[in-house]
Amino acid sequence: MIHLMKLAVGVRDLAHMQAYQADRLARGETLQHHTRNFPKRAAEITDGGSIYWVISGSLLARQLVTDIVEAQWDDGSKCAALMLHPVLVPLAGRPTKPFQGWRYLAAPDAPPDLARAGEAKGADALPPALRRELETLGLL
C-alpha cells in the first residue's frame, strides 16, 4: 500500500474542505479528484491507500482512494479520476513545502490520524487569526 500527497488548492482550512465536499455530496455528486497523470502505482494506492491533503501548507486530512479510473477533462483530453471515500479524516498536522502535481507517500512516512475528543474548550473565544493558525498546524 502507498498513499498520495496533493495540495488542496484554494482550500483555506479543514472546515472549508469539509463544507465543500458536503455540498458536492448534497448535490448527488461523487467525490473525485482529477489529475493529469495516471499513477503507475494505482493498484498499490487502491489497496488501502489514501490521498493526503496539504491544506495551507500542512498535511491536515486524508481520504481513502477507492478507485482510480480513466476520465476526461472538459476539453476531451485524458486524465485520471481519483474516486474518494466521503469520510475526511483529520491528521496530526505536519508542515509541508509546496510542490506541483501529486507525490507518492510511503505508509511509514504518513502523519497519524488525529483522534479528536471534541472541540478544544475556549477555542471559540480565540481571535480568528490565531484560531486559523492553530488549525493550520493541526493543533485545533
Helix and strand pattern: EHEHEEEEEH
Distance between the termini: 29 Å
Which bin fits the share of residues in helices? Answer: 10-25%
| Helix segment tally | 3
Number of domains: 1
Low-confidence blocks of residues: none
Roughly what is the average pLDDT, rounded to an integer?
Answer: 90
How much of the sequence is in beta strands? 35-45%
Number of strands: 7
Main β-sheet description: 7 strands, mixed
Description:
This protein is an alpha+beta fold. It has one domain. The chain has 3 helices and 7 strands, in the order E-H-E-H-E-E-E-E-E-H. Strands 1, 2, 3, 4, 5, 6 and 7 form a 7-stranded mixed β-sheet that branches. Strand 4 and strand 5 (78-84) form a beta hairpin. The longest helix has 13 residues, at 14-26. 21% of the residues are buried.
Any descriptors?
140 residues; 7-stranded mixed β-sheet; alpha+beta; 7 strands
Question: Layout of SSEs?
Answer:
Elements (H helix, E strand, L loop, with lengths): L1 E6 L6 H13 L5 E4 L6 H4 L4 E6 L2 E15 L5 E7 L4 E7 L6 E5 L21 H9 L4
Parallel strand pairs: 1-3
Antiparallel strand pairs: 1-7, 2-5, 3-4, 4-5, 4-6
What's this entry about, in short?
This protein is of the alpha+beta class and 140 residues long.
